[in-house]
Amino acid sequence: MPEQTMRHPMACDADAYWRCVFDEEYNTRLYLERLHFRECTLLEQHDEGDHIRRRMRLNPPPANLPGPVAKVIGDLSWVEEGTFDKKAKRYAFVITPASKPDKTRISGEIWCEPRGPNAVDRCARLEVEVKIMLVGGIIEGRVFDDTRRSYEEAARFTGQYVKEKGW
Fold this sequence. Notes:
Elements: E1 3-10, H1 14-21, H2 24-34, E2 39-47, E3 51-59, H3 67-73, E4 78-85, E5 90-97, E6 104-116, E7 119-130, H4 136-165
Antiparallel strand pairs: 1-7, 2-3, 3-4, 4-5, 5-6, 6-7
């Protein structure tokens, strides 16, 4: 399964970053205002002591894809199901796309590595596999590219948000 690991410098410490991840205002502003998603709905979030479990439905902006690829993909929305391990400070997730969920596997993990005072690298490992003849590789590449761009913008926004909130 194709895999990529991304690193993005963030102007905050790890605790502030994780506080953002589970903050409803942060997610609304990030996805709807900054990334221009059409939907960001928190379906459920439960603090279970050592873990936080969350389900979100997300619908990104329209993709600029070649016609045949867009027709194969259809609905671009997905449900993310994730678990944050408070002790390990790692968030593991699985994404189930609305279209072709039986032919698509997307999963990953996010963690932070210290870079200095009030600075971390947010690291994300992403695995994507799309088993659709002729276009699977194109779709995988697009998922990696779109995720990288979104994560870069999220890293910039997170530093601003943390500063604004005084965290």
